[in-house]
Amino acid sequence: MKKVPLRKCTVTNEQHPKMDMFRVVRTNEGIICVDQTGKVRGHGAYVSKNKDVILLAKKKKVLDRHLEVQVPEAIYDELLSLLNE
After folding, report:
1. What is the pTM of this model?
2. Is the pLDDT assigned to residue 1 strictly greater than 90?
3. Distance of CA 13 to the CA centre of its chain
């Protein structure tokens, strides 16, 4: 059996398999994007694929603190739309 990589959610501090998380990345140029492949270079933060967790991250500005930059509202909207797919 292959080892399943685990990542910690920056909001809840719970560990989940990497594929059950969203990765939000701040690139070296300062651009914030949602990384669906897991291969974008830059500083990343993982968020659970859960609507309540995403809304909590938005409310408490957890991603802003972790990525050390202001995360636009569009990123949270993109996470919620990806969750609904």
Report:
1. 0.92
2. no
3. 13
H helices, E strands: number in the chain: 3, 5
Residue 3 phi, psi (nearest 5): -75, 130
In contact, 27 and 42? CB cutoff 8 Å: yes
pLDDT range class, residue 78, cuts 50, 70, 90: very high
Three-class SS state of 20? helix
Contact of 44 with 24, CB cutoff 8 Å: yes
Q: Does the pLDDT value for residue 31 go beyond 90?
A: yes
Q: CA 60 to CA 79: how far, in whole Å? A: 16
**CA-to-CA distance for 81 and 40, rounded, in angstroms?**
20
> At residue 65, what are phi and psi to the nearest 5 degrees?
-70, -40
